[in-house]
Each structure stands twice: as structure tokens, then as C-alpha cells.
Amino acid sequence: MDSADLQKLAKRTRSMREAGFALLFASGLLAIPLVISTLMAKVSPAEPATASIPTAPNAFAAIHLEAKAAIVYDLATGETLYAHNADAQLPLASLTKLLAVYAALRELSPTTPITIPLAATQLEAPRAFNEGQTFSLVDLARLTLTASLNDGAAAIIEAAAAQQNRSQNEALASAAAALNLSQTYAVNGSGLDMSTMVSGGYGSAYDLARLTGALVAQSPDIAAATTHSSAEAVSEGGTAFSVKNTDPMVGTIPRLLLSKTGYTDLAGGNLVLVFDAGIGHPVAVVVLGSSQKERFTDGAALIAATLAHFAGVASL
């Protein structure tokens, strides 16, 4: 084979080698998508199984109350956490005093002097004052709500009505209307029964929850006085007064903001409590139409259930 033939053979060999490389390269390109999909299948997580979200336990499911009506109302969110006949209009007894104090605070400065009138000293007990004694509104309200004093409530609503040049029940109605308390109506500031058939004040558990929330927001110092076992104040004449709280539970409720009791023959046992379920998270608990003793048992049960609710458990 001469040199010309050798050159032709070498050239043909190079051409065959280049064609083989091109074929291999093309085959590799075609295989890349398959390799990638295989690798992705190995590393991609399997689709998760659909999991059911557990239902939060109902902390109020086992509640049994003596009360005719009750509510647990979240004042921070406006949510009703528990309700039993919460819109029923029932006698309020001394819970009416909360409306009397709220009515006065809408019209008068907390430092306004309030003088005890003769008619107030002739009401049923509990009473603490003599005719002509004078207190600032804030001090008289603190004593009145803590010890549920009928003479103090009568003096407070009389002063509020005089400021508006209205009757007492008109002044009370104006305060109720300001908060849109549609089931609330009162003819006196103390809540004392007018007769064996007519109460001094009526309202619903829902209305009372909103009223107490408004009072705590408007005058936290007056509300705070009701959370202690006693309250003290000095009249403008220098007479010192110390009264006991009508609620024996005040020392057992965490972060209590307000407490008020009520009891008459028509109303039965009433109770309203406001406590802080968290920082700046007030909750109102209202019990209406229970018995004189069971109102506290009902209130304690609702407090415990509320704390369990916020803890996310069925009970504590």
C-alpha cells in the first residue's frame, strides 16, 4: 500500500471516530431528561397524607348552673364564649347600682361632692351613712359598690338626675340607651324591689356584661375597689368609713377587675365578675336568677371553665 492509500485510510478512520463521538454525544443529550426525572423522583418527598385538624375541647360542655341566665363575654373581642338565656330580661337587684354609678359618671366629675339625702337613709339595709354626710362621687361609688349600699346608690342617682334635670328612672334610662342596653330598665338606683311583683331594675346577662365592661373602662379605680375584701374612704367632714365586700370570692379569682353581688326576693342571687384572662384581655361573667349561695358556685364554675377555654383544655 503506497503513501496515498495510507493517507486515505487515515482520513476515513478519523471520519468514523468523529461520527462515533457525535452519536455518543447525541445519545447523552437524549438521556439527560430521563436521568433528571429519575433523580427527582428519588429526592422528592412523598405527598403527605391528609391529616384531620383536632377540634378544640369545649371547656363549657359540662357546665351545670343553678342560674336562670348566664354569660361569659369576651370584652376584648366582643365574642360570647358561653351563654344560657343570655338575652332574658330578669330582675337585677343590686346589680342596678352599676347602672346608677355609670349614669353618674356620664354627667358628673369623679370629684363632684355628693350629699346623702334624708330619703336615702330610710331605705332598707345595707346602709352606712347619715343625712348630710358628703363624699366625692368616686369615694361614694367605691363604698357603695363594694358593700352594695342602698343609701349610697340612692344619693348617687339623685345627684345624676338633678344634674340632667330629669327623674331618676329617666337618668337611668339615658345611661342604658347610651350603651344600647335593650333589655335594661330601672326605676331606682339601688335595685330594691318596688313591691312583691315589681323589681327596682331589670336587664339581661348580655346587657350586664357590656355595662360592667364599660364601667371598668371608664373608671378602673372604682371597679378595682370592688376586688378587695373591704373599701375605705373619708367623708368631707372627716369621718372615716370602712365597709366589707359582699362577695366572699374576691380573694380567689385571679386578676379580678370588678365584682358585684345582688340579691332580692324577686331576683334571687345575682353576680357579675370581670377578670383579666390575659394582658389587657378582660372577660365578663354574669349570673342571674341563681340562689343566694349558688350564685358564687355558678360564678366559680364559669371562671374555671373560662380559664380552661383559654388554656385550650376541657377542664383545669
UniProtKB/TrEMBL annotation:
The chain crosses the membrane at residues 21-41. The keyword Transmembrane applies. Keywords: Membrane, Transmembrane, Transmembrane helix. The lineage of its organism: Bacteria, Candidatus Kaiseribacteriota. GO terms for molecular function: serine-type D-Ala-D-Ala carboxypeptidase activity. This is Peptidase S11 D-alanyl-D-alanine carboxypeptidase A N-terminal domain-containing protein. InterPro entries: Beta-lactam/transpept-like, Peptidase_S11_N. Residues 62-290 form the Peptidase S11 D-alanyl-D-alanine carboxypeptidase A N-terminal domain. It comes from Candidatus Kaiserbacteria bacterium RIFCSPLOWO2_01_FULL_55_19. GO terms for biological process: proteolysis. The keyword Transmembrane applies.
